[in-house]
Amino acid sequence: xxxxxxxxxxxxxxxxxxxxxxxxxxxxxxxxxxxxxxxxxxxxxxxxxxxxxxxxxxxxxxxxxxxxxxxxxxxxxxxxxxxxxxxxxxxxxxxxxxxxxxxxxxxxxxxxxxxxxxxxx
Length: 121
Hints:
By secondary structure, the protein is mostly beta strands. It contains no helices and eleven strands. The protein is elongated, with a radius of gyration of 14 Å.
């Protein structure tokens, strides 16, 4: 089994900052890409940022310049530092990894349970 546990969400005022964390554990042999997605009520789940095992990052246009994704490989943790938060950043944020478990030769996608971020005054 592979488990993802997110933390760091909460209520923050516009212009504030939050740091999300996601720890991946279980039968993980190798993690390729780690990413954060978000989903607002009534909307689709969208990619926020991603980082490969080589450290290559990508960001969605709405968050460029305000968000930084990073990762530690021991333990398998991905972070999302969010600054200058706006009300439109309000959403449930999900951690996602592309990982190969010990018992498989293929990569699969795994999701966390989500953490709520609310930006409001």
